[in-house]
Amino acid sequence: MPPSPIKAVIPAAGLGTRFLPATKAMPKEMLPVVDKPAIQYVVEEAVAAGIDDIVMIIGRNKNALANHFDRVTELEHTLERKGDHGKLAQVMETSSMADIHFVRQGDPNGLGHAVLRGRKHVGNETFAVMLGDDLIDARDPLLPRMIEVSQRQSATVIALMEVDPSQIHLYGCADVETTDEPDVVRVKGLVEKPAAADAPSNLAIIGRYVLKPEIFDVLAHTAPGKGGEIQLTDALEELAADETIAGPVLGVIFSGRRYDTGDRLDYLKSNILLALDRDDLGPDLKSFVQDLASSFD
User: Fold this and answer.
1) Which of 46, 68, 106, 163 is most buried (CB neighbours < 10 A)?
2) CA distances from 284 to 94, 272, 280, 295 (A)
3) Whether the Cβ atoms of residue 128 and residue 46 lie closer than 8 Å to each other
4) Which CATH code, of 3.90.550.10, 3.40.50.1370, 3.40.50.2000, 3.40.47.10, is assigned to 7-262?
5) pTM above 0.85, yes or no
6) φ, ψ dihedrals at 242, nearest 5°
7) 61-87, pLDDT tens digit by residue?
8) Is-contact 65 104, C-beta < 8 A?
């Protein structure tokens, strides 16, 4: 049986300070990755997983997000008059791909607080949380597997990925034990950005979660943690420590293609890698990159 449809929460209230001054007036989620804003990749991933009801948690100066997924009739009419049906289809698709709602976070109190702001829309149902800094290649679907595991085992599920131990201090890290499924582990604990010597594994938490509604009550009493903010990791740590709250916390280990757009260098790499895979851009870009690389020899 295919997984039952669920809703998705996409936190998008961050200030994007790593990309200043570009993000002074434009949301970081609207920065283009090749020729689409990063947030559109995330919505497309949700839709591909069978999700058509999405709530975005936004802050001030994020109106561009709502505008992008709204209709722009003047643009549609212009493209129609020009006979540019390809671009017209692309423009119209963004306003019809999903039912997208917007909720203000208000005070910027962290990821956990942003997720909590989605409570009224989600209700008492399991839901997905998708972070915009992590783009998952459409050829390597992750979310359907996470939803299937969550529903079959009545579990909270987080996405994990093996990273070089020298990089684990950049991530939340999972302490795990194996299960009878090679790509699924039981999460015993979570550590936020540990030193390599203190890390319980090299399994990093990446920005996909399938959460049971009990997480909301946990977040409601979670005290501010790292950075003085309400951390989703802290709430997940509580669930992992006490399975009577909402059942087990499981991790799905992802080994596919992931693009990190969270900092400037990785953002540039993501643009190049995705463009190289495009039939319309890849061949010419590959030649350019090869020529550029040879010029440094």
Assistant:
1) 46
2) 28, 12, 8, 17
3) yes
4) 3.90.550.10
5) yes
6) -140, 95
7) 788 999 999 988 999 999 999 999 999
8) no
